[in-house]
Design brief:
Layout: H1 6-17, H2 27-39, E1 43-51, E2 54-63, E3 71-76, E4 96-97, E5 101-103, H3 107-123, E6 133-138, H4 146-151, H5 155-159, E7 167-170, E8 179-182, E9 185-193, E10 197-198, H6 208-227, H7 232-237, E11 245-253, E12 259-260, E13 263-271, H8 278-296, E14 301-310, E15 313-314, H9 320-329, E16 335-337, H10 343-348, E17 352-355, E18 370-372, H11 373-391
Helix pairs in contact: 1-3, 3-11, 6-8, 9-11
Length: 392
């Protein structure tokens, strides 16, 4: 493999070999990264917990003086599943190459970025730091940014006397485009309880599946209403779809084709814009769906049974980090990302994030996930330059 830095490639290889799907433990991966940083003289803490049926750890490491205006470099260690994903022609957990790209689960999303951060951290002359540099590597991002949500309330304590930095570079795969915002994500599950019976007498029952169809159709109308409420900022950040998006994700219900379905569940994904109140959107969804059910199926009852909120993120385009990245990458139009990141949870702790990293978004989560070798070189140099400008 012809890359500029064999150490970088070796760290990538080791990281890909850790099977860090969100339902498995990532502790071995976190400990490997912690050992590298500890050996290079960094202060390192592991925030350990248990979630999604496995032991987990997020890593926080830092160097530099305890002063304000520091910088965070952040990425996640977990990856999406690969074992049952069709289309793989390579071993997902063995780094491979064809000379132009490297292959393996997580190389784009986002283990190559973690490796780049480690290389820069280990080669850094820490005595030159005038402001602190902090690494935050999380778990369970792919499961709804849950690891960052669990870590964020503890960051100030973990850093001790070090002031919490105000800005963060999140190295998600953007092809080095600079993104300053993203929508949130709300996962809702709603249930309709109807009245069962023999399918030959629909007049005696209330079909929960049919009622859910009415409720789902109302959500299509609501999405069109939301498009009519767009703002100039929303159109600038998210020109493809400048409103909260509504996705009907999963549905289940019924028992047999000759029985009136007495229950149906629908899982919905909502993507509110920065500045939107997720709870207001949830209430509007629940109200519109309930009214649609009552109009046609008064005996049926709709209940909201589960919600999971990943917050949105928005950072000022004139911030130090955003402007530095724009200058270094040549990216002139700072817009929003179409996906959610840990940035929303970090924002709740007082850290404003900018998203920019190696790899193409279309490679994330797909079989034979890959990253251009040229992005390995460019990404490492970009981190070096950002750290030099903002911390040295």
């Amino acid at each position: 493999m012809t890359v500029a830095d064999p150490e970088l490639l070796e760290i990538c290889r080791r990281l890909v070999a850790f099977d860090t799907v969100s339902t498995a433990s990532n502790v071995a991966c976190a400990e490997y990264l912690a050992d590298l940083l500890d050996g290079a003289g960094w202060q390192v803490r592991l925030h350990r917990d248990h979630a999604l049926g496995a032991d987990k750890a997020s890593l926080v490491a830092w160097a530099g003086p305890p002063v304000e205006r520091g910088l965070v470099l952040s990425g996640h260690m977990d990856v999406v599943p690969h074992a049952d994903q069709p289309g793989w022609t390579r071993d997902p957990l063995a780094l491979d190459t064809d000379g132009d790209r490297i292959y393996g689960r997580g190389v784009a999303d986002m283990k190559a970025f973690l490796a780049q951060c480690i290389v820069v951290a280990c080669e850094l002359d820490r005595s030159r730091l005038e402001r602190p540099l902090v690494l935050v590597f999380t778990c369970d991002e792919e499961a709804g940014c849950l690891g960052a949500a669990r870590l964020a309330p503890h960051l100030r304590r973990l850093l001790g006397e070090l002031p919490l930095p105000g800005e963060c570079l999140i190295g998600e795969p953007t092809g080095f485009e600079v993104l300053i915002a993203h929508k949130g994500h709300v996962r809702l599950t709603v249930r309709i309880d109807g009245r069962g019976g023999h399918s030959s007498r629909p007049d005696l029952g209330a079909n929960a599946i049919a009622a859910m169809a009415e409720a789902a159709a109302e959500l299509n109308l609501l999405e069109q209403d939301l498009l009519g409420r767009t703002t100039p900022e929303g159109r600038l950040l998210f020109p493809e779809f400048p409103a909260a998006a509504i996705n009907l994700g999963m549905i289940s219900g019924g028992t047999a084709d000759n029985m009136i379905a007495d229950r149906c569940e629908l899982t919905i994904g909502l993507r509110p814009l920065p500045g939107d109140d997720p709870e207001l959107l949830v209430r509007e969804v629940e109200l519109r769906m309930s009214e649609a059910v009552r109009r046609r199926f008064p005996a049926a009852v709709l209940t909201l049974v589960e919600r999971e909120v990943t917050p949105s993120m928005s950072s000022p385009p004139d911030g130090r980090l955003a402007q530095t990245l724009a200058e270094l990458t040549g990216c002139r139009h700072l817009r929003g990302a179409p996906f959610a990141t840990d940035g929303g949870q970090l924002e709740s702790a007082g850290i404003r994030s900018v998203i920019c990293g190696p790899g193409e978004l279309e490679q994330a989560h797909r079989p034979n996930e890959s990253l251009p070798i040229s992005h390995l070189r460019r990404g490492t140099q970009l981190i070096r330059e950002v750290v030099a400008r903002l911390c040295c």
